[in-house]
Amino acid sequence: MLAWGLALAAGALLLAWTDYQRMARTNTGDVALLLVAGLFLGLGLWLGFAVWNKPAPPPGNPAAIASLGLTPREVEVLRLLAAGQANKEIARALEVSPNTVKTHLARLYEKLGATSRTAAIARARSLGIIG
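Now predict its structure.
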């Protein structure tokens, strides 16, 4: 039984090969066009992934963030603050208590030399920490 299956598979392979040979001889221009199109497709995919797929630079101004000693969480609070969110909304977004947000804001005001939300946002924007 296995021998019959192998014989049928070999026959099907032989028929497919002869059909391919006939097709390749009668449609050489189409085959060449298909190969060139495949080459350009591969080149385009390579360029897309290797050349233009570079990691994004870190958001904000890393030098200013480091010089002020801002923690990543404080920068996140500052971004949410600049987006116009209230303390409770920031607390929900960060999954912390509103008192923790108030603590972060107090430290941000101190580090930025600001006395209000608006002044903190303006100072952060002038330093390039937020957009």
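Residues 45 and 51 are 10 Å apart (CA to CA).
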